[in-house]
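Let's practice the habit of predicting before peeking. Look at the sequence and jot down your guess about where helices and strands might fall. Then scroll down.
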Amino acid sequence: MSWRGSTTVSDRIFACLPYLLPMVEAVTFGLFLLQQFPPLAIVFAPILILWSFYRNVRYAGVIIFFALFLLVVRNEKISHFIRFNTMQAILLDIIIFLFGILTDVVGLVPSGGFAIQTLSTTIFLGIVVAVAYSVIQSLSGRYAEIPAISDAVYMQVR
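Done guessing? Here is the structure:
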């Protein structure tokens, strides 16, 4: 849906960049899968490199989260397309945070190792699919419509 006007090539590229945040955050959930299928680690090598830098900087997630929200989403001088995609990436990041709490709770159950691995892999694959879909739509100049998430984004971004 491109009803807010046409998008330039630079807008499309800048709209894809915020999706690095949920991808980097999701790597923690994908470690089981990446260990069992080493060729996938080659595919995700750039994200793994970013993840290693991300883990070394204390509070990097919080800093990036608030910087994106305050400097991009709330800045009406930036195109709606970029702000929409940035807010959608932020909401995906919030979902990852909530799933992190869920996996911590499941981890309290004795002998819940297999359940945690299954849950983590499912979360990782879900985020990868959502990000891939959003990036492809953004590069095409269309709004990525993810059920429930996009509705919340439309409420936040005017």
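How did you do? Residues 80-107 form the longest helix (28 residues).
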